[in-house]
Amino acid sequence: MFTLLSKRILTCMTLSAVCAFSIGTTAAFAADPVKLRISTPAVESDWHAKMLTVFKDELAKTAPSVFNVEIHLNASLFKQGTEPAAMQRGNLDMAMISAQDIAKQIPAWSVFTAGYLIRDPGHQKKVFNSDIGEEFYQMVADDMNIEILDVGYLGTRQLNLANDKKINTPSDLAGVKLRMPGSDAWLFLGNALGADATPLAFGEVYTGLQTGTIDGQDNPLPTVKAAKFYEVTKQIVLTQHLVDAVFLSMSKETYDELTADQQEKVQAAAAVATAFNNENRIADEASLVDFFKNEGLNVYEPDVAAFRDQVQKAYLSSEFAKDWPEGIVDRVNAIQ
């Protein structure tokens, strides 16, 4: 009887231990946070770098211990423009990608790389929150296996030149080596403005301006300040040629592995992050003209109508326009 009782006790103890181990193991696995690695070429002081910290902090607040967000700035993880391919290969979870990046794989997206189409930040948000945005985001999900979470205002791009030649019309840019990111869409825009578009990685722009490898670069004013390009340039020409966007995106493979609740939390955090970026970037742009003037730069507005006319004609007669969905320009223009 003693032996039988001992066996029963031992069996119960063993089962209890197994159950305890099983519960503990399950809890441990459940507690493992979802790792989200984000790569960006942005410098730490730029708003679209700071908005990633807002995204991270918002998830920490709304979903404690659920996500482990790693932010890699200064193109330290992947070079600018290579992020979409990295997400598609499963080597990267998140990035901020441009319409120019997307247009490399989905030519219809080149409509959003065209100069003088989107009017201002408010118009940009309305366009991508409309059925147009839904339609174009679905293209990215279907054709690139990337989920766009939200659009952020990257700024209105201006010309920033190392020389002091007065620029009034596109013809004044003849022979000017204007740095552009290395894609067909970016280079077309630089050439449409009248310059000699020259591809160069963002991390090499400061030195390129300093050494004369390039004569100028185009970026929104907050980026000019954050990257300190004003230290090696003499003027800013307010061409306002592109109301630029950045799309906070996630590998669809990563996104689809999230629960419905986790997806909701990620979408909400993205909305908070882009709103933070937009508010601060718009306020920043409004104050920066005086900042650059105080730094000794000549800041002025050229004949914007002449630039708009030349750029729009260049796009409408280009190969890009052949890939645009029928009526898309009218649909974008109709959104007020």
Question: Can you describe this structure?
Answer:
The chain is an alpha/beta fold. It has one domain: Bacterial extracellular solute-binding protein, family 7 (D-Maltodextrin-Binding Protein, domain 2). It is built from 13 helices and 9 strands. α2 packs antiparallel against α11. The protein is globular and about 60 Å long. 42% of the residues are buried.
Describe the SSE topology:
Elements: H1 2-31, E1 34-39, H2 47-62, E2 67-72, H3 83-89, E3 94-97, H4 99-103, H5 121-128, H6 131-144, E4 146-161, E5 177-180, H7 184-192, E6 196-199, H8 205-211, E7 216-220, H9 221-226, E8 235-251, H10 252-256, H11 260-294, E9 298-300, H12 304-316, H13 328-334
Parallel strand pairs: 1-2, 1-3, 5-6, 5-7, 8-9
Antiparallel strand pairs: 3-8, 4-7, 4-8
Helix pairs in contact: 2-11
Give keywords.
alpha/beta, globular, 336 residues, D-Maltodextrin-Binding Protein, domain 2, disordered N terminus
Please give a quick description of this structure.
This is C4-dicarboxylate ABC transporter. By secondary structure, the protein is an alpha/beta fold.
Could you spell the SSE succession in H and E letters? Answer: HEHEHEHHHEEHEHEHEHHEHH
Mean pLDDT: 91
The helix tally amounts to: 13
Shape: globular
Q: Write down the domain tally.
A: 1
GO biological process, one term: transmembrane transport
Protein name: C4-dicarboxylate ABC transporter
Organism: Thalassospira alkalitolerans
Keywords: Signal
